[in-house]
Amino acid sequence: MTILSSFFNRASNAIHAYPSCSKLLVLCTISSGGLVAYSESQAENETPSEKKKKVLVLGTGWAGTSFLKDIDVSHYDVQVISPRNYFAFTPLLPSVTCGTVEARSIVEPVRNIIKKRDGEVQFCEAECVKIDCAGKRVYCQSNIENNLVGNKEFSLEYDYLVIAVGAQVNTFNTPGVLENCHFLKEIEDAQKIRGTVIDCFEKAVLPGLSEEERKTNLRFVIVGGGPTGVEFAAELHDYIQEDLVNLYPIAKDLVKITMIQSGDHILNTFDERISSFAENKFQRDGIEILTGRRVVNVSEKEVAMKIKSTGESCSIPHGIVLWSTGVGTRPVIKDFMEQIGQKNRRALATDEWLKVKGCDNVYALGDCASIDQRKIMEDIATIFEAADKDNSGTLTVKEFQDVLDDIIIRYPQVELYLKSMHMSDVTDLFKDPRGTDATGVDIEGFKSALSHVDSQMKSLPATAQVAAQQGAYLSRCFNRMELCEQNPEGPRRFRGSGRHQFRPFCYKHFGQFAPLGGEQAAAELPGDWVSMGHSTQWLWYSVYASKQVSWRTRVLVVSDWLRRSIFGRDSSRI
């Protein structure tokens, strides 16, 4: 027994010293399975690994893909649902319509993106048709139309839901738009336009047509003078002048491009200098710009308009119409907004941390969402109370500076207001009318100083730049969620105690481009810098090449630009 007891002691010490040994099953006939029972009990005492939280991502656009590229999949069970199994570099869609860049050059398969992650990300090619916030479940439907076996509908549960489904074209309920217009939101749209442009030229050169019929077929109308419409007009003009008129010489003097804009100027979200430069260049190129007109109907042959200044009605014939007038809400988002009490909105309302208001663990990014920034005047009394440490009823500059960093982080409109008023420091708000520094202010003076700050609140534009930054921000929050629960990194809570778990989302504008054709472009850069001309076009080339999602697409896009400069654009209708 002494020998057997010594053996047990040594075995026990070995198993405790090396936990992995507890997985071994030792057989011994001497003790009637005593060692077997020991090893089993040790295995039973092992604590199972904590189950990963399930993150469900809807969409593979800019926001969704940016989130997927940075999320730490070792901490989460990530699933992706999208009706498209690729990511498209949408700023180059106008180039696809004219063959400057091929469609496959600006798309990257989603499975290529997710396979580069350390952990597994599951992808399903399907469309989300309903979101059940209360039951934490989404209902999906496959769009694959082939005669394949199996159920097309399924549902998935989630712990966290990231909605990044984008938006659809906004027709403003104008009659005939859905039936008779082209759009430019997806790769399929660009390919369809490319084929229709060639159709217009082929039909125009058929024998037996009158000159008016040829002109009608070659009348290209663009509704909307924003960046997409302007870039398409520029691409189409270059395509016609550099390639198609050489292939269809009879059409040289019959082609006309017309742009209809409801505002007074095209590119009205850009600097006035860029807007003026673009209008002058289009005028030199022979592109007709009709401003101050609202389209009221689009038929198979005509576009009917109303002149806003006079109320007169007029119409123009068309061969093709591109509708590019902004974005609207997708049906699944409309249904979801009704569920959570957000009816009659253009997009889902989120807080500054991108969490959907009225829902737990649901986030919304990109074009389908809009941040509802809290106004500083709603919290002005609590901010004053928190800053007034001595409860004197008067706030000194020193007391205000102690909470200044938290105010600027929590209410970014404060910093925007200071810039707009050309103030170097926030303490300039408390100077009297003669410019003298005030030693302190009471609550009424504090309200008066900050009363105009909320006027700088603006909705973020529905651009790829915004969506990509939101995706990267949210993935960082997810990656640091456990750490920030113990050590919050956000600003002070003025209503309540402690600090916010994360810093709120802050958009950084890196500028925007407007290619204008003829190897010229315009750019609006940070710091009120404006650049226009041929050199800006080369800057556009370098930026758009560097922003491609992979080296594969980067090489393909650059090779397409080189091919076009050497051989011209391909006019085959494939």
From TrEMBL:
Span of domain EF-hand: 375-410
Q: Which superkingdom heads the taxonomic lineage of this protein's source? A: Eukaryota
How is the protein disposed in the membrane? Answer: Peripheral membrane protein
Q: Name one Pfam family in it.
A: Pyr_redox_2
Using the UniProt record, name the top-level EC class of this enzyme in a single word. oxidoreductase
Cofactor(s) recorded in Swiss-Prot or TrEMBL: FAD
Name the EC number(s).
1.6.5.9
Query: Would the keyword Chaperone be found if you checked this record's keyword annotation?
Result: no
Alphabetical keyword list: Calcium, FAD, Flavoprotein, Membrane, Metal-binding, Mitochondrion, Mitochondrion inner membrane, NAD, NADP, Oxidoreductase, Peroxisome, Transit peptide
Its cellular-component GO annotations read:
mitochondrial inner membrane; peroxisome
The catalytic activity, as recorded, is: a quinone + NADH + H(+) = a quinol + NAD(+); a ubiquinone + NADH + H(+) = a ubiquinol + NAD(+)
List the molecular function annotations (GO) for this entry. calcium ion binding; NADH dehydrogenase (quinone) (non-electrogenic) activity
Note whether Coiled coil occurs among the keywords: no
Identification of the protein by name: NADH:ubiquinone reductase (non-electrogenic)
Q: Which organism is it from?
A: Dipteronia sinensis
